[in-house]
Here is the input.
Amino acid sequence: MAKGPEYLALRNVRAGHGTPPVIEDADLSIAKGDRLCLIGRNGSGKSTLLAAIEGKLGLDKGERYVMAGLKLATLPQDPIAPESGTVLEYVIAGGAEEYRAESLIYAVGLMPNQEANKLSGGQIRRADLARALAQDPDLLLLDEPTNHLDLPAIQWLEEELSQFRGSLLIVSHDRAFLKRVTNGVIWLDRGSLRRLDAGFDKFDAWVDEIEATEEAERNRVENYIKQEERYKLRGVTARRKRNVRRLERLDSLRKEKREWRNNQTVGSIKTQTAATSGKRVAELENVDKCFGDLSITKDFSTRIMRGDRVGILGPNGAGKTTLVKMLIGEEKPDSGEIKLGMNLQTAWFDQQRAQLPLNSTPWDVIGEGSDQIQLGDNQRHVVGYLKDFLFNEQQIRGKISTLSGGEKNRLLLAKILTKPANLLVLDEPTNDLDMETLDLLEEMLADYDGTLIVVSHDREFLDRVVTQTIALEGNGVIREVAGGFSDYLREYGDTDKPVNKASKHKEPSEPSETPKPKKKASKLSYKDQRDLDMLPEKVDALNEEISTLEATLATPDLYSKDPLKFQTTADMLDKKKAELQEAEDRWLELEMLQEELQG
Here is the structure.
């Protein structure tokens, strides 16, 4: 439902080259009050659609409507360095008042008098963000706005957008970000647009309903060819149903890490030392590291054991990469001791993608001259392996330079996972990845038997993947907790740092006092405890209902004899399955919360 006057619309639009076209018979309306996110897999045509919305792409069919006098601003995905001038001049050139431009430049961690042509890629991204926001537009188009931003910057942006008076259309993979700033979803799926007028937190359930409806229809007409195509394009539903098992395994690993951290006594050191052969990956003891006036660590100690899944987060400039290099032996400390495990084989995901020659093909990069690759004790054909990473035949044989940023990241993941490694280091692996690839990556990491170190600003990704979090807060202050980003927040609270606190290397502020942990409840609330007590019975009852409904649908000739009953039963089955999924998720959430409170 439109929330106000229509700002911009595409009507019956066809756009993009190829057969079929990227977008076919698309209708889209953006009105005052809309705060939409645009979702679609890499290569589905999101950039084409944005170009059509912005008016930079000619339409093969249909029309583009823009309200008279509409002020439109955009944040492009790929930053282009200004040729000259200061940051202030660059931001003002977008059409902003000087006072507002200066305020936003400081807010994103830059200085107005910096030379614009000397900014790094990440700094250009921040300058572009300030330029777009400073225009105070009616409609703001943001393409992957959280890329190259650290957590404090993302949290600042969320607050800024929550106060933004105009309408939004955002392309992003960051689930936590989208949940906080959007009130609607546009799903670009196989050239068509679908709209959900609800927040992003409703997206997964909505997609499940669509897929269930389409699957039922396909089964009725026995159209298995379309069914196979559908699940090759988006095989997320089955993976989502395995989330409970994955979360249970992750919670078990977190408990082990929590038990180790809660029992670091003199007596337990002997036990750990006696069992370190083949198990210790890295141990830091009282490590100090600094670069000039910038302190990375102060008297920092930690231990990473085989199988640990470590997330590293912190503002840009706090020293995340330096810490990772110390953990794998590529950087020496100024003082203290680093002990590395034996026979470490490290695979490193480099966010700069230096391992991908642009003139080569994915087949060349993965196969290295062969059409077979060795994966453990098994051999796989290159094509079959790359299809697991959602590449089609045309992409596998095409130039890497034609792939999108997310597709290149997906290819790099495929490459590093072909080599034997017992230590996997991922540096911002989620940048540019679509939701499907993120689900695929999470599933692969859940099955990975080695040790994992992840540097990321994606809060939900960290919550789903890691068992231990090391947070660099700047000026040598490091906090370590068992669990993911949410566990870190529960332990220490939202520190609410300004965006540029850690980026001022020349004049670091004094270390802040250690904040006192927020007082935590000792038991579940009455409502939570009541839910926990009743959920097992509810799950059993739902399972029985689902079995009964499935048996009814399996009745021979039911559809031909009583199509209305078939449809009603199928709809009820979908509803009960959704209720079961919701109940199981709630049960798992409460069990984990109870363990946390009792631990």
Remarks:
- Residues 563-598 form the longest helix (36 residues).
